[in-house]
Amino acid sequence: MSDMRAAAPMEKPVVLTVAGSDSGGGAGIQADLKTIEATGGFGVSAITAITAQNTTGVESSHPLPIAEITAQIDAVREDFDVRAVKTGMLATAEVVETVADYAAGVDAPVVVDPVMVATSGDRLLTEAAETAYEDLLAEAALATPNADEAAVLTGIEPTDEASAMAAGRELRSMGAEAALIKGGHVPGAAVLDVLVGPDGAETMRHPRIDTEATHGSGCTLSATIATRLARGVPLETAVERGVSFMERAVRYHHAAGTGPGAVHHLVDLRNEAGRAEATETVREAIDRLAEGGGDGSGSAASAIDNVASATPYAETDRDVAAVEGGWPPGADSAAPGRIRFGAAPALGAALLDGRERDPDLRVALACRPDVDLEDALDASPCVVADVDGGGIAVLSEDIDAALEAVETAHSA
How far apart are the two ends of the chain, measured CA to CA in Å? Predict the structure, then answer.
């Protein structure tokens, strides 16, 4: 037998990002390539400008010569089947015009993120370049301006749903097939994103996250949408999933640098990687409960109905593993005793609600209604919450602490 192993190549759609470089790693080309890889694509790039920046601001910006930009684009076109293109910082009118010419000849969706000002407030686009955007927008499958950028491009300042729709319609009249007006820069308790496309408008509302760590958010959002389009995902679905992805990426941002920090480009990938750990946590817990009394008759075991464990960046019930049909296994479930994500919606909801206040909470034990047990648990270091439909949940950062709290309370 040969010692040589067979190769197992992976084929992923190629996504080209044409944007500036961010030495701080949170935005620009760096953010795009991380995001494209994390969401299922193979990222290639054409760098338009080099910036010296970090989480506190932009120190300097140096646009590359047009010949160097076109050389990068030509090299990519000659070798790769580009399935989607996204644009970011283009810096000058000449660069915008060059990229617009390329976009006109590419047979792939183009996502235009009209990067004009950095999150820190530093200007990244010349005034002359702002007026050159019309030709590029005419080639866009989707434009993704924030409220400030939409106001510059259309003359309409998006301050509410109606004005955001008006700005989106104006961008479509300029040639873009669709426009996503991002509401992150508009004050308010909720973030309002408005997608205006050929079939009308859709409004997406989600709670504002209490953080200023949004460096790279625009780049990351446009990159994840472009990658989904390259994978054949319909535009509306790609946008909805991209917005949900960004909500998680901002909440669980990187605390890097001395500034506010940067969004977490790999958050979904890391969350998926945590599913095995969550499942194993539940499995280990029920094994321990069974050892304490195989039929649920042990001291702690007799008080517990189910065990749940969340992924590290859990946001929905689909991120919470629990026992199908509860514990101990019964016959009233299609798969009694099986550990499944989303198996215990009420317990999952209690854990997710607790994570809104303390994102470090990872596990939950569902306990049968017992006033004495609940009173005894009040003295434990764990969080005690009500479960919809009856009973209580003991929430903790780790399963050992949760089991110990129930054991101690049950023995009191």
Answer: 65
Reduced to 3 states, what is the DSSP secondary structure of residue 197?
strand
Query: pLDDT tens-digit profile of 61-99?
Result: 999 999 999 999 999 999 999 999 999 999 899 999 999
Backbone angles phi and psi of 19, in degrees to 5? -165, 180
pTM of the model: 0.89
Edge to edge, what strands does the sheet with 339-341 contain? 339-341, 320-323, 304-310, 363-367, 392-396, 383-386
Please, what are the domains in the chain?
A: 14-272 (3.40.1190.20), 274-411 (3.40.225.10)
As a whole number of Å, the CA-based R_g of the chain is 25
Query: What percent of the chain has pLDDT above 90?
Result: 73
Best CA proximity match to 155, nearest among 136, 140, 170, 177: 170
Distances (CA, A) of 257 to 124, 253, 260, 313: 21, 12, 8, 21
Listed ranges 88-97, 121-130, 219-228, 283-292; the one with the highest mean pLDDT = 219-228
CA atoms within 13 A on the CB side of 74: 7
Q: Is 196 exposed, middle or buried (0-12, 13-18, 19+ CB in 10 A)?
A: buried
Residue 268 has which token pair? 């979904």
In 122-216, which residue ranges form alpha helices assigned H by DSSP? 127-131, 133-137, 147-154, 161-173
